[in-house]
Amino acid sequence: MDYKKIEPKKKKKLSKEEFELNKISKIKEFDENWEIKSMTNQKFLRDTLHKFWFHTKKNLWQNFLIDKLSLEDIIDSAEISPEDNVIEIWPWPWVLTQQLVKKAKTVTALEIDETVIPVLKYSTQEPRNLTIIHQNAVEYQPEFPWYILCANIPYYLTSPLIRHFITSKNPPKRLVFLMQKEVAQRICEKPKNMSVLALEVLVFWKPSIELEVTREKFFPAPNVDSAVLKIEVFDKPLIAKNDLATFWDLIHSCFSEKRKKISNTLAKYRQMWPKKAQEIFEATWVSPDKRPQAITIEEWDKLVQEIKNKFGFIDLSSISAEIKKEEFEI
Questions:
Q1: Which of 119, 193, 236, 304 has its Cβ near the most Cβ atoms within 10 Å?
Q2: Does 253 fall in a domain?
Q3: Does some domain include residue 104?
Q4: Is 88 helix (H, G, I), strand (E, B) or coil?
């Protein structure tokens, strides 16, 4: 029996245009398949966690966003352009990282939990514009200015993180935080309901709540609802940079007894006597009957200026040390 020699088929040489079309088709096919494997897919999410023997940690706020519409709204809120550098703190949930690398020039992901990093690399496929750093965010010093800061953070780290980045040599131009709804609402409070955290933010930025994310949109579901807080930077702080340490020290001291009138708390500040406190109220036209949460930033600034004029002996180095005692680290 005769067998014909089967010659291998020669590959057709593609033209430049055909090659590009074929390349685009393969990329599109990969993107579509990967979208199915997105971490918003609960089955894929569970399989991935099981693959790496990973267990979520409640104390690290490890909850996964599994709602695609909320994810799209968060990305839109960040207003990322192809020229923007993004720093992501605690790249949770990973779906956010997947979208950030598609939008931004570079993404620097800061992750404190070392066990997360292998899963993060697997879920993002490690694109060239993604840098993953195992480090505590409150110790990280940004190397470039005017970046966008994205984060999914627990409430107890909000104040230390905000203070750390706004006072760094290279502060961000915009912050987008997925955080506990109640804390976001406190930051956006107006006079009569002010808090230390709100004052610290309002000095530098204009905050706004972009959307609310209910607890059932996460896996595992947390005990509280969340919100996306967007913070835009002012051209210059409402309190002069040289006065910030005095301002922080003053508000922390007054808010330690926030139910009392400012006349009582200011009289105790730096061992100030009631008579001198009254002189400050008269010079600034700030009502001594107000409580700390009802005082505006403009009024705090007047108090700071008058305190500086009357008490040049305030030790700013001791002020910074006292403030740092209140910061939390993991």
A1: 304
A2: yes
A3: yes
A4: strand
Cα-to-chain-centroid distance, residue 214: 19
- Shared domain for 96 and 166, answered yes or no, is yes
Q: Give the single-character DSSP code of 13.
A: P
Q: CB within 8 A of 162, min separation 6: which ones?
A: 175, 197, 200, 201
Domain identity same for 146 and 249: no
Please write down the long-range contacts of 35-43, taking CB distance under 8 Å and 24 or more positions apart.
38/68, 38/95, 38/98, 39/64, 39/66, 39/93, 39/94, 39/95, 39/98, 39/123, 40/65, 40/66, 40/67, 40/68, 40/71, 40/95, 41/66, 42/66, 42/219
Stated pTM of the model: 0.69
- Of the candidates 186, 184, 183, the residue with the CA atom closest to the CA atom of residue 210: 184
**Which of 200, 233, 266 is the last residue in one of the domains?**
233
CATH number for position 290: 1.10.8
Among 199, 233, 267, the domain boundary falls at 233
Structural domain total, the chain = 2
Inside any domain, residue 12: no
Contact criterion met (CB below 8 Å) for 96 and 73: no
Are 221 and 313 in the same domain? no
Which tokens is 114 given?
């070392």
Q: What is the pLDDT of residues 138-180, one digit of tens each?
A: 999 998 888 999 988 776 777 788 878 877 889 899 999 998 8
Interval 305-319: pLDDT, tens: 988 887 754 444 444
Same domain? For 70 and 125 the reply is yes
Nearest CA among 156, 164, 45, 148 for reference residue 93: 45
- Neighbouring CB atoms inside 10 A of 66's CB total 20
| Residue 175: closest CA among 58, 67, 88, 279 | 88
Query: Could you tell me which residues are beta bridge partners of residue 177?
Result: 151, 229
Q: Which two tokens stand for residue 78?
A: 């960040």
**Is the residue at 69 inside a domain?**
yes
Residue 262, token pair as written in the block: 């400012």
Which residue range is the domain that position 144 belongs to?
42-233
Q: How many CA atoms lie within 13 A of 157 on its CB side?
A: 21
For 179, residues 6+ apart whose C-beta sits below 8 A from its C-beta are 151, 152, 153, 154, 155, 158, 226, 227, 229
